[in-house]
Specification:
single chain, mainly alpha, 13 helices, disordered N terminus
Length: 335
C-alpha cells in the first residue's frame, strides 16, 4: 500500500524524490498532534502530578490579577520552565502556530470590541481619566438601536498595558501547558489524575482522551495512504465548503467508523473486566521525588497566597494588600 501511494505521489510530482509524499502528508493531515517525545530533561523527569498541579495553580492564580509586574514575573518563570523541556521549534511548530493565532484573535478582538475601554485593574470611576495617547475613528456597540455606530477607539497607556498583560498571561499558561503532552508518557496521564484523587472512571476517561488524538491521526494517515493508492487526490478538491466536505467523505467516513468501532471494543473489554464496580489498581505506580514535592507545595502555597491577597484587596482599597487589583504602571508613564 505504501509503495503504491509513493508511486502515485511521485507520478504527480516527478523529480522531487521520496521526500515529496512526506510533505504532502504533512500538509494534508490537517490535525494538530501532540506526540510524546522521549528525552532525559528536567521536565521529562518530573512527576506528571507536579506538572498538572503547577499548571492548574498558576492558571487560577494568574487569572486573579492584572498587575503588569506580577504577570511579567509569571511569564519569565513559565518561559524558564518551558526552556527546561528542551523542545525544538520543529517539534512544536503546529501547536504554537494554532495557540498564537488564537491568542492574537482573543486579545486584539477583545480590544477592538471593547473600544479600548475593557481594562482590568482600573476602577470604573477612573475610566474617564485615562491617559489617552490616540483616538482612532472606529465603530462600536451602542445601547440603543441600531446598536452599532461610529465610536472612537481609545489608545491609552492603561489599555496598552492591559493588552500586553493579557497576552503575557495567555502565553505563560501555554508555556506550562504545551510541554505536558510532549514530555509525559501517555500511559501516565490517567495514573497522574488518579493519584490526585480523581475517581477511576474519570481518570481512565482522561487517559483515553489523551490517547484518542494520536490514534485518529494514525488512522487518518492510513486512510489517506489507502485512498491515494485508489487514485483519490486530496489536493484537487473543487467547490465550496459544502462541496469539499462531501468530496472528503472517502476520508472522513472510514476514520469516523473506525473510531466508533474502536470505542465499542474498549467498552466491551472494560465490561468484561467489570470496570467501575470496585476500586481498580494501576500497573504503574508514580513515586514523587523531593523536587516534585517542592513544586507541588510551592504551587499550592502560591495559589493560596494569591487568593488571600485577592480577597483582602477588595476590602483594603489602598496599600500593599490592594496591589493585585492595580495595573502597576510607573508614574512617569501615567503622571
Amino acid at each position: 500500500m505504501v509503495g503504491a501511494t509513493l508511486a502515485v505521489a511521485l507520478e504527480h510530482h516527478p523529480g522531487q524524490g521520496q521526500a515529496q509524499p512526506a510533505k504532502l502528508y504533512e500538509r494534508t493531515t490537517m490535525l494538530i498532534n501532540f506526540p510524546y517525545i522521549k528525552r532525559d530533561t528536567p521536565v521529562h523527569r518530573l512527576d506528571p502530578r507536579a506538572k498538572f498541579i503547577l499548571l492548574f495553580s498558576y492558571g487560577f492564580s494568574i487569572s486573579q490579577t492584572s498587575n503588569f509586574w506580577i504577570v511579567l514575573a509569571g511569564f519569565i518563570m513559565a518561559a524558564f520552565y518551558y526552556s527546561q523541556a528542551h523542545l525544538k521549534w520543529v517539534e512544536t511548530k503546529r501547536a504554537w502556530t494554532f495557540i498564537l493565532i488564537l491568542i492574537t484573535i482573543l486579545v486584539i478582538g477583545n480590544y477592538f470590541l471593547s473600544g479600548g475601554n475593557n481594562i482590568q485593574g482600573i476602577d470604573p470611576s477612573e475610566l474617564a481619566h485615562l491617559h489617552v495617547l490616540y483616538r482612532i475613528p472606529f465603530i462600536g456597540l451602542k445601547r440603543l438601536p441600531p446598536y452599532i455606530g461610529p465610536a472612537p477607539l481609545l489608545v491609552s497607556v492603561e489599555s496598552l498595558t492591559f493588552l500586553i498583560s493579557q497576552a503575557m498571561r495567555l502565553v505563560s499558561i501555554a508555556l506550562l501547558s504545551v510541554p505536558i503532552p510532549y514530555t509525559t508518557d501517555p500511559g501516565h496521564m490517567g495514573i497522574a489524575f488518579r493519584g490526585m484523587g480523581v475517581p477511576d472512571k474519570f481518570a481512565y476517561a482522561i487517559d483515553l482522551a489523551f490517547r484518542f488524538l494520536p490514534t485518529v491521526v494514525r488512522d487518518f494517515g492510513t486512510t489517506l495512504d489507502a485512498q491515494r493508492a485508489r487514485g483519490f487526490e486530496l489536493e484537487k478538491l473543487r467547490g465550496g465548503l459544502v462541496g469539499k466536505t462531501v468530496r472528503l467523505a472517502p476520508m472522513i467516513v472510514p476514520v469516523v467508523i473506525g473510531s466508533i468501532i474502536g470505542a465499542e471494543d474498549i467498552i466491551s473489554a472494560m465490561e468484561l473486566r467489570c470496570f467501575g464496580i470496585g476500586k481498580r489498581s494501576w500497573l504503574t505506580e508514580l513515586r514523587a521525588r523531593p523536587i516534585d514535592r517542592a513544586i507541588i507545595v510551592l504551587s499550592l502555597s502560591g495559589f493560596a497566597l494569591i487568593t488571600i491577597l485577592n480577597v483582602l484587596g477588595y476590602f483594603y482599597t489602598q496599600g500593599p494588600l490592594h496591589f493585585l487589583h492595580i495595573q502597576g504602571i510607573p508614574h512617569f508613564l501615567a503622571p
